[in-house]
Design brief:
The protein is α+β, with helices and mostly antiparallel strands. Helix content is 27%, strand content 12%. It is built from six helices and six strands. The strands form three sheets. The chain has a two-stranded parallel sheet. Strands 3-4 form a two-stranded antiparallel ribbon. It is globular. 10% of the residues are buried.
């Protein structure tokens, strides 16, 4: 019985992922998503890349004013450390997060009509944990201010939002978003949850909301 359930679950996951792939990239068949063999030809280990070539600063020892003068105004990239230790999100793990939000639908792309393609977290977690050999695997990019869904309860994303906070460096008197009401009808999306397996993610692009 357990074997039959496992096979049934895997088959259901495969069908859901295949359907999502067909909608997200309609001109590439699901069985061609690995045609470039990136999984075996691209080395993603840290040793293969010049990782973090920018200055590193301790966020606990740097004031917002110093950050603005040294990095923000001159547009100097940097890596900020020490800002997340007290976030509940730091306790997230793959399995615990997937179990916590198993029944929630997350956005994994849009179809040719601009409609959101949604997957239950349980289904996506099965796919991501299977080490897919897709050249560019599906990944989640979910608007935490509310993606339209037929099954998610309204406002459930607040559970994720509560697990992190905006660092003081990015709270500015000049942030025009602060003057816009939080209602989704008036404020553009500005809080996102992104998650995916190796090689997933967006190509370099200009923010469509900029």
């Amino acid at each position: 019985v357990r074997t039959e359930r496992a096979v049934s679950s895997t088959t259901a996951m495969d069908r859901a992922i295949e359907s999502a792939k067909r909608r997200v990239i309609s001109d590439i068949a699901p069985d061609k998503w690995n045609m470039r063999r990136y999984a075996s030809n691209v080395d993603l280990s840290l040793d293969a890349w010049d990782v973090d070539p920018f200055p590193r600063i301790d966020g606990q020892c740097t004031t917002p004013e110093e950050f603005r003068a040294r990095f923000m105004d001159p547009q100097q990239p940097c890596t900020i450390t020490g800002l997340c230790e007290d976030w509940p999100a730091m306790a997230w793990g793959f399995d615990s997060f997937a179990e916590r939000f198993a029944e929630m639908e997350f956005k994994c792309g849009t179809d040719d009509n601009g409609d959101s393609v949604m997957l239950p977290m349980r289904t996506f977690a099965q796919y991501a944990s299977s080490s897919p050999d897709d050249d560019h695997p599906l990944y989640l990019f979910h608007n935490l201010d509310g993606e339209e869904s037929d099954t998610n309860p309204p406002g459930w994303e607040a559970d994720i939002i509560a697990d992190y906070k905006v660092p003081p460096f990015f709270k500015s008197k000049n942030d025009m978003f602060d003057g816009i009401p939080l209602e989704r009808e008036t404020r553009p999306p500005f809080r996102w949850f992104a998650w995916g397996p190796a090689r997933s993610g967006s190509y370099i692009h200009k923010d469509p909301l900029s």
